[in-house]
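Summary for the funding panel

The consortium committed to producing paired sequence-structure records for every protein in the target list. Below we show the first two records in order, beginning with the earlier of the two.
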Amino acid sequence: MAVKLRPFVLISTALGATTALIRYRQARRDRLGRGARPVRTTSRTARNIEVAALSARVGTSTALTRARQVFASAERRIALNEDLQLRTAADVTRTLGEMKGALMKIGQMASYLDHGLPEPLRLALTQLQSDAPPMSAELTARTVAEELGRPPEQVFLEWDPVPIAAASIGQVHRAITRDGRAVAVKVQYPGVAAAIAADLGNADLLFGALGLAFPGLDPGPITAELRARITEELDYHQEAANQQLFAEHFAGHPFIHIPAVITELSTGRVLTTELATGATFAEALTWDEHERDLIGEAMFRFVFGSLYRLRAFNGDPHPGNYLFHGGGRVTFLDFGLVRRFSEAEMGNFQRMITEMVLNEDLVAFRQAVEASGLLAVGAPVSTAAVGEYFSHFYTFVSRSGRFTWSTEYASATVRQTFNASSPVTRHTTVPASFVLIQRINLGLYALLGQLSATADWRAIAEDIWPWVDRRADTELARMEAEWRGRPRGEEQAQ
């Protein structure tokens, strides 16, 4: 009887959530008047209603499809299931894209993290990487006028009202400055700050629930770090400073390019930078094996070179933030989510790598992870179990020799991060300094897996790690060594 009633329960839930959502939208239209709104809902309650309505629609569609499949032929059941997947994927993508904010970021991450997702859903979510629903030209112009004092057509010599990219916080337009420079102008969505504040208001609930599965998890540092970093991302002054930090560090680099910031045309909600063009990640995936290997090494060098030599990490590694030019040359975009690290924090990272990878000393490694705050001191788990759990994250640098990244390894890394069955995770937590670093495991590795990038990553890592600084024998290593000022052909080793 419970099975038969389930579809009706789901339908009732959907009707209730949808009715509440309709009433909310009608009241909002009455207050604000008709017209396009870039961020559909901004209050926490309203965004909860949006998510509830989405969940209910998916549940109702699933229940009705299963009911139809009962008396359908095998061929018809397959067709019904495929139709359900396509409609669900489209609905989820459309809803997250229109809501924007932190929820859209979750959709972006899901699109490239784990290839265990149903293919229609994963493919649909890839649209959120650069093709989210944009705001109207009128709203864009209004925001530019509020920030820069005049409409975009007067501020710039030329202004393209059609955005070239629309993402979770803002959208990007092409323009030409009065002195003839081609630029990209990122304009923040009106209302997105309130939307993200509403999403972050649920962070305690989310990580509190995770704490039930991971008893050692302390949600406090995680939610505090996420709030701090994502709140910074809303301030384009901060993003401009972040981007300039990376641009100055990599100035003149042979294969890493950071667009320059045009400070006089940038404010808290408008960011103007040098315009960059190039191939998308999807296009780069069609290039030959050698080119994909070069891309992989360039991305690896940028991420870990920034971390270990600049002590800063650009924490938003998703496909829409890269442009590719061949020969390993990559342009890196979007510096809103950047974490700077102290010497003490970098010392923890260095010690863990040294003990696990270079010394292969599990006792010393355990002491290092305990000192870093990742593992409770004296946790009742064996050192061998600690080594077994954490060793997965060092597989690609554990030995010299060529290693090929795969989507399977990247997905396994995601699952290992949240492996509730391991006795070790019962006693682990995520200190603030490690919160964004997890984006390397959850983002960069997924992209390297899609590229099937192959190299001697141990040698490249030792080239990057400043406490080792041993030259790798690759084309990009030689180029970067010359940029650093080391004589060509000079080998450095400890």
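The next record, for a separate protein in the list, is shown here:
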Amino acid sequence: MFFTLSKLLFFFITPFFWCAALLLIGIIRRKNTSRWFWYAGIVFLIFTNPFIYRKAMLAYQEKPAPQSLAANPITTGILLTGFVGFDAAGNGYFGKSSDRFIQAANLYHTGKVKQLIISGGSGNFWKVEPPEAGFLKKELIKNGIPDSAILIENRSRNTYENAKYTHQLIDSLHLKGPFLLITSALHLPRAKKIFSKLGINCIPYPCDFKQYPTVNHFMNTIYPDVSYLKDWEYLIKEIVGSLAYQIMGKA
């Protein structure tokens, strides 16, 4: 039920929906129409401003992993999925956030982890897709990582289930922590709370940074960029999702 509601309600917390709703209210009411159009315009300008988005993202996303990690190798890394898409024939394609895959492979090849747990089934609400974990295992093997060093959990549909089923796998194999939790910097604040709540001792390893400190200039400070309307959706989703999990006692 939680999975279904989260997918359906997500649309209503997006800046696009807010702009559309304000415009629609202005059209329907026919009184003070310009006021509602102004409100929609203000929301649009706020959520297309690169400076505001960058500051908000830098404040929320996980900071880079400390360099000291190299001196303290960890046995097992946990790679969270959510960056693979499938066509109608079931062929997988890497999408956004594929830096998670790159960093997981690098961690193994540089000896920082000895094995990887890939956690993730299919989180697609609208159609049935193959589990991501199975596809990624094949790709990691192609990348030179032996089958014996890869474990998969392919039932989870969201972050809570990632933690739940990974915990079951860890217990069944009697694996010892701490574990390296590999996922996007934006996703980590929520993910590490959920994994910790279930008693999994994890060290966060952020990757796929959405923003990073940069020199301010006109184009990345003042000039509106409509692509940020979509980028804000991911940030708002993480913030609201984290609060929802805490209220439900899952984080």
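Regarding this second record: The chain has a mean pLDDT of 91. The two ends are 18 Å apart (CA to CA).
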